[in-house]
């Protein structure tokens, strides 16, 4: 047998080896195509049904989601939504992922590794831009020292027998008490007013106002040692001492 004949014989055997499984596959498809078609239609119908169920459920959750976005200045976590909507955190995360993809929200990780979603609308963006105007940094005790400078021309010159200790209590009392009473005409302060009082940037107050330690932080910065709390409903700041007295 020549070399060419051996080559042809090997090629024919290889073709038969490939032809056999292909033939079985064709026979299988011909005999079971109805069953396979029915299975594919069943899977498609099930997926469509699941998608409709998810859409109906999402429409029920949308009002809760919108309220959280407005109340938290666009900052929402899966735990917030799960607690508010009374469902699992896994479903809450899936819902927020869908909304983040829909609205182009930013997703950042908190210190404990949990995701935080930031949804920004026109109202929230305007509030952020309005609160981001920097307040000029003043010396540490500028709030206490401003009034004596303004009152100095009207105060009588101390006589030789008068001491500095006899004049400071009255000036200090007027300086601290009067501005606070004027600022609290409506019982609260807006963000820019509190920032000036605490001698910080308005954006700093905005970032810290929802922190649990905001009252202690504001007390350490306040010239009167007053702790302040933020009302999400009124978007204003109230002195805790004033609330306790009332």
Number of helices: 10
Question: What would the principal axes of the Cα set say about the shape?
Answer: elongated
State the share of residues found in helices, binned by percent.
55-70%
Q: Report how far apart the termini are.
A: 114 Å
Average pLDDT works out at 75
Succession of helices and strands: HEHHEEHHHHHHEEH
Low-confidence regions: 135-178
Rounded to an integer in angstroms, the radius of gyration calculated over CA atoms is: 36 Å
Strand content: 5-15%
Give the strand line-up of the largest sheet.
1-3-2
Total count of strands = 5
Sheet having the most strands: 3 strands, antiparallel
Helix/strand/pairing category: mainly alpha
Write up what this structure looks like.
There is one protein chain. The chain has 246 residues and is mainly alpha-helical. Among the domains are: 53-120, Winged helix-like DNA-binding domain superfamily/Winged helix DNA-binding domain (Arc Repressor Mutant, subunit A), CATH 1.10.10.10; 134-155 and 164-245, no CATH class. It has 10 helices and 5 strands; from the N terminus they run αβααββααααααββα. Strands 1-3-2 form a 3-stranded antiparallel beta sheet. A two-stranded antiparallel sheet has the order 4-5. It starts with a helix and ends with a helix.
Characteristic key phrases:
mainly alpha; 246 residues; 65% helix; two-stranded antiparallel ribbon; Arc Repressor Mutant, subunit A
Summarize it.
The protein is mainly alpha-helical. It has 10 helices and 5 strands.
Question: What order do the helices and strands come in, and which of them pair?
Answer:
Layout: H1 3-71, E1 75-76, H2 78-85, H3 89-103, E2 106-109, E3 115-118, H4 122-131, H5 142-151, H6 164-183, H7 191-198, H8 202-208, H9 214-221, E4 228-231, E5 236-239, H10 240-245
Antiparallel strand pairs: 1-3, 2-3, 4-5
Helix pairs in contact: 1-2, 2-3, 5-6, 7-8
């Amino acid at each position: 047998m020549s070399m060419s004949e051996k080559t042809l014989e090997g090629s024919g055997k290889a073709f038969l080896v490939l032809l056999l499984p292909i033939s079985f596959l064709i026979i299988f498809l011909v005999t079971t195509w109805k069953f396979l078609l029915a299975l594919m239609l069943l899977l498609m119908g099930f997926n469509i049904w699941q998608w409709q169920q998810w859409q109906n459920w999402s429409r029920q959750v949308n009002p809760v989601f919108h309220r959280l976005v407005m109340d938290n200045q666009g900052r929402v976590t899966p735990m917030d939504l799960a607690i508010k909507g009374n469902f699992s955190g896994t479903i809450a995360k899936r819902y927020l992922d869908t909304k983040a993809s829909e609205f182009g929200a930013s997703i950042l990780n908190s210190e404990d590794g949990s995701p935080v979603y930031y949804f920004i609308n026109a109202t929230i963006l305007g509030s952020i831009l309005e609160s981001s105007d920097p307040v000029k940094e003043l010396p540490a005790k500028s709030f206490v020292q401003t009034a004596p400078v303004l009152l100095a021309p009207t105060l009588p010159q101390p006589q030789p027998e008068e001491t500095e200790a006899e004049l400071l209590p009255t000036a200090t009392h007027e300086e601290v008490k009067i501005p606070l009473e004027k600022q609290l005409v409506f019982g609260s302060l807006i963000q820019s007013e509190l920032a000036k009082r605490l001698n910080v940037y308005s954006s700093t107050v905005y970032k810290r106002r929802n922190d649990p330690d905001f009252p202690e932080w504001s007390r350490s910065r306040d010239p009167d040692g007053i702790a302040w709390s933020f009302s999400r409903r009124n978007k204003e700041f109230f002195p805790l001492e004033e609330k306790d007295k009332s």
